[in-house]
Specification:
three-stranded antiparallel beta sheet; 9 strands; Jelly Rolls; 267 residues; binds 2-oxoglutaric acid
Amino acid sequence: MTSVDQARLGELATTYRAKGFALIAGLFEESELCTLHEVLLRFHSRWLAANSALYAARAINSAYLTDSDHLSVEDRRVLFRVLGDRRIECLLRAIFPGPAAFMNTQLFFNPANRDQPNYWHRDIQYTGEPDAVQRAELNNINVLHMRLALMPERGLELVPGSHVRWDTDEEYGVRMERGGRKNCEELPNTEVVAMGRGDLLIFSANMLHRGLYGVDRLAFDMLFCDPLERLVKHVRPSCLPQGQDFDVIENPGPFLETLRVREKAGS
Ligand SMILES: O=C(O)CCC(=O)C(=O)O
């Protein structure tokens, strides 16, 4: 198990603040990845069986992996162990201004249709809030993807710095498909991140990004956010650890934050 030393954490946090993302190469070792990979493949094959129409039509990811509908208690604990890993805790502390709350998990794969167009977006646009609110929120709320690659990939393209600034006219036209533009069109000043198996990419969900399809990929995304009711209200309680699940979790902090906020809100 590789650790993240203080100097490296400082560098990563600086990179993240400037660009909205940072890559930590080889964070997870082969011996740790094998078990996780097996669990993810079990989840994936069961999810595919239950969602064949959605997969054939357009799916690029599944979510709620820690729920009990597809995985056994033991398999869920493998995921909880990774989510509560000390290295993840160190990274969360370096990135978040305060405590982080657990939000969800996702599994990103290649769509069934290899020619399916991808789409530039900011996750925040799906809140349905007016642009002015989204724009103001960019610098106020933190939602973080931690993407662990299970196979080498160049599966994500990002616009560095866009986590703290609104779109240029061109970016907005493409993202929102205005003026005849399409959200799969090329944008300037982007960066494609090449990841190896075991690498972890942290990126802000607020930033402009798109998936790149057409090559095999399997990436486990762990989502964390500020402990705010409006962010954690969509968390499924059944995706949270309970009872003895906590025995395998080194850092239960983010799960406890989610529970605390939900209990306070009475949800
Ligand atoms: O990897 C992808 O396909 C897109 C990722 C993405 O859009 C997201 O994580 O919000």
